[in-house]
Amino acid sequence: MNLEPYHWLNSWARRAFYWYLRRFPLRDGKEFFYQHCHQRLAPPQGGVTLRLARGFTLHLDLADPVQRRLFFFGDYDERREADLISRVLDKGEVFWDVGANLGYFTLLAATRLKNTGQVVAFEPGPSAYACLTGNLSRNPFANILAFPVAASDQEGDALLYSMAGLPDGRANLFQPGAGQTESTPVRTVTLDGWREQQKLAEPDFIKMDVEGAELAALTGARETLTAGDPLLLVEMKEAIFQSLGTERAAIEDFLSPLGYRPAGLFRGRWQVRRTVREVSSRNVLWLKPESSRHRQKAARVPVGGL
């Protein structure tokens, strides 16, 4: 049997599928085709290196659902958040990626800063940290520091629960979830203490995704938040807070006395809200309306309601 036509058709279908998911302007229907076709049209090799349109390179393990989607769509689902970071960062500024995973936002910030300023990545998971440092080595940036530590409200040690062998974006310090069979001892630090110990510059922007440890991490960064007035982009999944017996308002209770107000995505646009209970998006932008620097940066996005 001559398999050459089959291989040619499969290759053509794969290229057409990639183009449709990555470049076709209308998003309606893409999820349907992805769910029904991605297994048949995935590359035969398990790992691929991809140059993203945002200007940096990632090596992706297609066994990981998150990385697989990133490969097929050519970008994260959090494209609005990526656009925000690209618009507000200025050359020479400092970006902290707390919960960096494989390094998407770390490299996004480095691309924007163009080897000026500094990018600091925090990632405690051993598999994720190995992916992170590997991806950093694939890009020509000399202004990135990476640390295998977990941000918390105290120095010490903790167990990190994760899926075995993958840079698990759901890895957490509290309880194992579905498929999280690996528990790894990790070092916990406060961001204030680590900044002083490592002689780090004050951040201008902090992106935080630490799967339920957000309040602890922010508490350990009180001096940093007060001294430097950084913008904050914090992932705040309601389901995780509920599983821990708390709610998103606890973070608002901490940040509000420091002058921060929440803004969330609504119909693709960022909008300041009176309270975090009015924010439906999982990622919340925290900014200080009284800060002229914050207002100027928010106008670039733009952020409504200021």
Automatic annotation (TrEMBL):
<dbReference type="InterPro" id="IPR006342">
    <property type="entry name" value="FkbM_mtfrase"/>
</dbReference>
<feature type="domain" description="Methyltransferase FkbM">
    <location>
        <begin position="97"/>
        <end position="261"/>
    </location>
</feature>
<dbReference type="GO" id="GO:0032259">
    <property type="term" value="P:methylation"/>
</dbReference>
<keyword id="KW-0808">Transferase</keyword>
<dbReference type="InterPro" id="IPR052514">
    <property type="entry name" value="SAM-dependent_MTase"/>
</dbReference>
<dbReference type="GO" id="GO:0008168">
    <property type="term" value="F:methyltransferase activity"/>
</dbReference>
<protein>
    <submittedName>
        <fullName>FkbM family methyltransferase</fullName>
    </submittedName>
</protein>
<keyword id="KW-0489">Methyltransferase</keyword>
<dbReference type="Pfam" id="PF05050">
    <property type="entry name" value="Methyltransf_21"/>
</dbReference>
<dbReference type="InterPro" id="IPR029063">
    <property type="entry name" value="SAM-dependent_MTases_sf"/>
</dbReference>
